[in-house]
Specification:
Helix content: 10-25%
Structural class: alpha+beta
Number of domains: 4
Radius of gyration: 32 Å
Largest sheet: 6 strands, mixed
């Protein structure tokens, strides 16, 4: 619920108390109605009158409900005259009328307008002409060009008229900012609204109850979003400031006590599944929705208007010990104004856990009748519904409540804490921030001076200063479970709203996971660890956490509510600043590899900015605002506060780890066994077994890319004693690619809005450095490389090394091997690479990384495969798609890009080919024999029937094909090619969430070219008519039991494939439906993997943009469907133990309502080679192998197998790592 103040003061065009007529240009005071000296100048200076036109801000146009910018009819504004207490603007809509007019604004240094030496008067005349206007230092203008120091006079004119039309008054600015902020949240909230006054008197009813925040294109009356915009743009300011009454309207609505809206309509029921319904709730309605109120006001609430706050709720123990079942287990919680149980424990871990549960904002009972007590009442002491109490707690936001309460945010226009306004000993924002930081860090924490050192205060008394009610309004945002913001401009309002709204939806832990263990340990997952990421995009914060697993892959340690207890959190294990360092590369050219020390830099807390090479300072001081000492480097390393040369404080961060939104962590230890010591003849074959044993014995590490621009390396040992002096979870090092260094200034900006900085995948690879090329030097040796990309953040890639030193795994600057971007020679077609690279040795001996060129390269760029030297980044080859299939594909309007790449190795274990799909539905084979380096067949191997509506994004998998028993039959001397399995679907941008026209599918395609050979002569492109269709048997649906309870299992058909006439198979997705899921929306975005003779495919179902999937699971994840099919034919297999009796049943599909397996999954089994490649000996697998694996995602673990008929079978295992989308 939005609760907006529409009191009369919201129509003010200036700060209170101005008298600004034309006589007020001098030092005269109290004469000629001049209540403020130099008031004519002060009123026109945003340094003094923060509401006035500010040349440092871009005043964006107001938008309509569809996000379309409105057209400003005003050509010019003249402000040369003033009334006694307000400016007297004259507006003109034609050039003729505006001719000769002038607009003046004033810049007052040090907030002093008293002399010509401290004020700069800027005149904008009409017509503006072709001249320019200087911009203030540190401006935030976006329309004048990058790093602009001036703007054209006409752009300045347009900015002025936009300010006048849409930001001049408080109501205009608030409405415009609210309309802009809400565009990013279509259909992500149910939205209702109330206002303070109606007809000049305190409102009796809400304006509208919550409903979908979207317009129904098929029903004109259901234009809910348009109605919201009509309301915010049509508010009429009039009346007083009865804040308590206005908030109670929202609370009464949530409680079901509102009988009508202000228009007389029956209000909707906020707790119904159907938000258009006004009926009573029942047991079919979801009980886990969280209710919010955002209150925006410009003044201290009126004395004598308090209601509902007779009890000091914020300073008194909760009246109820609430009980519920928020995570499937019983839970209880009762508010304690001193803090949660354990807040003062002598055990640090206990203390930190308690203090992070919630932050109390008691004032010791000093104040009474406050707005803060009312918001605390609705947050801690009110259950608005009889529905079960299972609202998921919000990790990272210190909100443990699980009942149907109301969280309140307060936004105060011009409302400054009393101490910051000059009251000696009064409340300040520094006090509030220090209290929060000290509380969460486990230090002694002093409550802010909410009551300005008074021992008792009745906030409802007319004798009480308004400044104390302003303090109380600020406190109310914190006691209400949200937070508070002071705003002074439309830009401040937009930023505060975006921060609050994104905090409600912009959080998660769905980037993916890593799982510990070595390549021969996966008979069970018992005592292995799962590593997860968390993120809050509102403030770009995150965490990496480790959880110990039980034998089935569930959490071993849980609290009384069933919530998993982490073994460690990286934020709480972060070393002291003095022990942190950043490694970076300077002026590295991948095409001329240089291992010199000068290329590799170590940034420490003592590193001065002016000591860095020029390519670093060009990025870190591009705006010339950083101090040249070590302050900005210390800020990058995590120290707050720090300031720039103007004293502007850099953005404060609540924790040192940034958000990992799409990049899962990578476990770097002994999981991978490429089988090089047993199979083939790669360089270093005789040394591989010892290397594998060594990397399995050494302490493992976690590499994690985050959107603070760093790859963090953490100690992933299972205890705190493995590395002397370095506990498990502690950071060992940080790497910063220059592609992310370029964003450090933006990350320090207090106006920062989340954007991707370093968000691509990371992969571990075994590489033999036969020429001792790495800067760490030494003899030729196997090296454990970690290869990464910028992902959505940019077109760059980099290579790191995890050292094999015997003492520890701590990297140095020498373990930053290489980096490159799309400006590096030969890499001009590199786009945003969001799929995992792969690596290996070519038949000419070169060890390479393979990756697609990515997506969104843009017009004129080619789409293709990059072959990159793995140790140096040097370009080995770029193989573009044939003419007419890249961005020159006129049929499809271009080609967004190439997806994940799987390598094909021959019996020597050297890469000879690769498969990848593209965004237009083409499946490609690349001939990587070094004498060839070409696109096989000079055309696609197969194109999906839906083309660009059935894109291939996820990395394919392949297995050896046995042949057709006629033209070709596999033998030790005869290869019959490969069966290549792909899943279709993509999710890279908002357009991909539009309801697709075509259902997605899984395809198995026979590539008849023998592995290691040239293109098979006469082999034509596979067509849809060459495929046998398998279907999902919906009638076979069966509910799981035991540990599989809550899941549903299905069989698929087993139609035979006659390889003499057919070339593959297809299984169409979209048959298994969920209420609220997008029609035709099921898709595959995670990499495929082999499991014996089966293939594992995970799909997910996004929510319908016009409905929305809603669930009361603890994770809130989208539905997932896991397919374990026969790779050769797509037929049904014994893949799941549906009744938990230890035997795999003849079911190939499991449907999980809220699975958490969307992306970044890890499949654990004892294996040799990469998970999506065929057997190292290139033999076709038997029809079943009895291999078993565990698929672990954010939401849990699913056991699967390649089951044979029950008869004394053995198990074998192997590990798989899949990337994010």
């Amino acid at each position: 619920m939005f609760v907006l103040d529409n009191s009369g003061s919201m129509d003010f065009e200036a700060q209170d108390g101005y008298s600004v007529n034309d006589n007020c240009k001098g030092s005269t005071d109290w004469w000629s109605d001049c209540y403020r000296k130099y008031g004519w100048y002060s009123m026109r200076s945003s340094d003094i009158n923060t509401q006035y036109y500010n040349p440092s801000i871009t005043y964006a146009a107001r938008v309509n409900s569809g996000g379309v910018k409105l057209v400003n009819p005003i050509v010019f504004v003249d402000n040369q005259s003033s009334g006694n207490s307000a400016p007297s603007h004259s507006t003109y809509t034609t050039a003729t009328g505006a001719s000769g007019k002038k607009f003046t604004y004033v810049l007052c240094a040090g907030n002093d307008c008293s002399s010509s030496g401290t004020r700069t008067v800027v005149d904008i005349n009409y017509p503006p002409g072709s001249g320019t206007v200087d911009l203030p230092a540190g401006h935030k203008r976006t329309e004048c060009g990058k790093n602009a120091t001036s703007c054209t006079a006409d752009l300045e004119r347009q900015n002025i008229v936009n300010w006048y039309q849409w930001y001049r008054t408080r109501t205009l600015a608030v409405s415009t900012a609210l309309g802009q902020a809400m565009q990013s949240y279509e259909n992500k909230f149910r939205v209702g609204y109330a206002q303070y006054n109606a007809g000049g008197n305190a409102a009796d009813h809400i304006v509208r109850g919550v409903n979908y925040f979207k317009d129904d294109p098929n029903v004109t009356a259901n234009n809910w979003k348009t109605k919201f915009y009509d309301w915010i743009y049509g508010i009429n300011p009039s009346g007083g400031t009865p804040s308590h009454n206005a908030l109670m309207l929202a609370a009464d609505y949530f409680a079901g006590n509102e009988t009508q809206t202000s228009s007389g309509a029956t209000p909707t029921n906020p707790w119904k599944n159907d938000p258009t319904s006004s009926g009573a709730v029942n047991n079919t309605d979801l009980s886990c929705r969280r209710a919010y109120a955002i209150v925006l006001s410009d003044g201290a609430w009126n004395s004598g208007t308090t209601k509902g706050a007779g009890t000091k709720y914020a300073s008194t123990a909760g009246a109820t010990n609430y009980s519920g079942n928020p995570s499937g287990n019983p839970a209880t919680l009762q508010y304690d104004p001193n803090g949660a149980a354990g807040y003062n424990s002598g055990t640090l871990t206990t203390k930190l856990a308690a203090r992070n549960l919630y932050i109390p904002y008691s004032d010791g009972g000093i104040s009474s009748n406050g707005f803060a007590d009312l918001t605390a009442r609705y947050f801690w002491n009110t259950d608005f519904s009889s529905l079960p109490n299972n609202v998921p707690a919000i990790d990272g936001q210190h909100n443990p409540t699980f009942w149907q309460n109301m969280t309140t945010y307060t936004i105060g226009w011009g409302l400054t804490p009393s101490g910051d306004s000059g009251t000696s000993g009064g409340l300040t924002w520094d006090q509030i921030n220090a209290y929060n930081n000290d509380w969460l860090a486990g230090r002694a924490a002093t409550q802010p001076k909410w009551a300005d050192n008074r021992s008792s205060v009745n906030l409802n008394s007319s004798n009480t200063s308004d400044s104390l009610r302003v303090n109380d309004f600020i406190r109310a945002g914190f006691t209400g479970g949200g937070r508070s913001y002071s705003v002074y401009s439309g830009e401040d309002v937009r930023r505060a709203l975006d921060n609050a709204l994104s905090g409600m939806v912009g959080s998660g832990n769905d980037a993916g996971v890593a799982v510990s263990g070595n390549s021969s340990e996966f008979q069970t997952l018992e005592n292995q660890y799962k590593y997860t990421t968390e993120y809050q995009t509102a403030d770009n914060s995150g965490d990496i956490k480790a959880f110990r697993l039980n034998a089935d892959g569930g959490y071993l340690n849980v609290d009384g509510s069933g919530k998993a207890i982490p073994a460690w959190s990286a934020n709480t294990k972060m070393p002291a600043l003095a022990n942190r360092k950043i490694f970076a590369l300077s002026a590295y050219d991948a095409n001329a590899p240089d291992w010199g020390a000068a290329k590799r830099k170590e940034l420490t807390p003592t590193t001065r900015l002016d000591s860095l090479p020029t390519d670093f300072t060009a990025l870190l001081n591009a705006d010339n605002l950083q101090r040249l000492d070590n302050s900005f480097i210390r800020y990058m390393l995590g120290e707050d506060p720090q300031t720039d040369i103007n004293g502007t404080i850099y953005r404060s961060r609540k924790q040192p780890i940034g958000a990992s939104v799409n990049s899962p962590p990578v476990f770097v230890g002994g999981r991978i066994d490429m089988g090089y010591s047993i199979y083939g003849s790669v360089d270093g074959k005789d040394l591989y077994a010892a290397y594998k044993a060594r990397k399995s014995a050494l302490p493992p590490t976690i590499f994690a890319a985050t959107n603070n621009g760093k790859v963090h390396v953490f100690n992933a040992a299972k205890d705190d004693t493995t590395l002397t002096g370095t506990p498990a979870g502690a950071e060992l090092a940080e790497f910063m690619p220059k592609g992310a260094m370029a964003s450090q200034i933006d990350l320090a900006n207090s106006n920062f809005r989340f954007r991707y900085t370093l968000d691509g995948p990371l992969v571990e690879q075994d590489i033999y450095d036969r020429n001792s090329q790495t800067p760490a030097g030494g003899a030729a040796a196997w090296r454990q490389l970690v290869l990464g990309t910028g992902g959505r953040a940019g077109s760059f890639m980099y290579g790191l090394e995890s050292p094999m030193n015997t003492a520890n795994r701590t990297p140095t600057k020498n373990h930053f091997l290489w980096e490159l971007d799309n400006k590096t020679t030969g890499y001009g077609d590199l786009a945003n690479v969001t799929n995992n690279p792969t690596a290996g040795q070519l038949n000419d001996g070169t060890w390479v990384m393979l990756t697609g060129s990515g997506h969104y390269a843009g017009a004129g760029k080619k789409v293709g495969l990059y072959v990159v030297e793995a140790v140096t980044g040097k370009l080995r080859a770029f193989i573009p798609l044939p003419a007419g299939f890249g961005n020159d594909d006129t049929v499809n309007g271009g080609n967004r890009g190439l997806g994940g790449v799987v390598a094909v190795r021959d019996t020597s274990r050297r890469i000879v080919a690769a498969y990848a799909g593209d965004a237009n539905g083409n499946l490609w084979r690349f001939d990587l024999r070094t004498a060839s380096f070409s696109v096989s067949y000079n055309r696609p191997l197969f194109t999906t029937p839906g083309g660009k509506n059935q894109p291939i994004y996820a990395t394919p998998t392949w297995q050896t094909h046995p042949g057709d028993a006629t033209a070709c039959t596999y033998s030790t001397s005869t290869q019959c090619g490969a069966i290549v399995v792909v899943g279709t679907g993509i999710l890279l941008d908002e357009d991909d969430l539009q309801t697709p026209a075509t259902k997605q599918a899984i395809y198995g395609i026979w590539d008849q070219t023998p592995i290691g050979s040239g293109d098979k002569a006469g082999f034509g492109k596979v067509a849809a008519t060459d495929l046998v269709e398998q279907t999902i048997a919906l009638a076979s649906a069966k509910d799981g039991s035991g540990i599989e309870t809550g899941k549903k299992f299905y069989q698929v058909s087993s139609n035979p494939v006659d390889w003499r006439t057919k070339k593959g198979w297809v299984l169409n997705l979209g048959a298994i439906l969920y209420t609220g899921a997008m029609a035709n929306g099921e898709r595959v975005v995670g990499d495929l993997a082999n499991l014996g003779s089966s293939v594992v495919i995970t799909s997910f179902l996004p929510e319908d943009r016009n409905l929305g999937i809603e669930s009361c699971t603890a994770t809130g994840s989208l539905p997932n469907i896991i397919y374990v099919l026969d790779a050769l034919t797509g037929k049904n297999k014994s893949s799941f133990d549906i009744d938990s009796n230890g035997v795999f049943d003849l079911y190939s599909i499991v449907s999980i309502p809220s699975g958490g397996f969307t992306r970044g999954n890890v499949s654990s089994r004892n294996m040799v080679g990469q998970p999506n490649e065929g057997r190292p000996d290139l033999k076709p697998d038997a029809d079943c192998t009895n291999e078993v694996g565990f698929l672990t995602g954010v939401g849990g673990t699913q056991k699967a197998g390649d089951g044979c008929p029950a008869k004394g079978w053995r198990r074998s295992w192997r590990s798989v790592v899949s990337p994010p989308f």
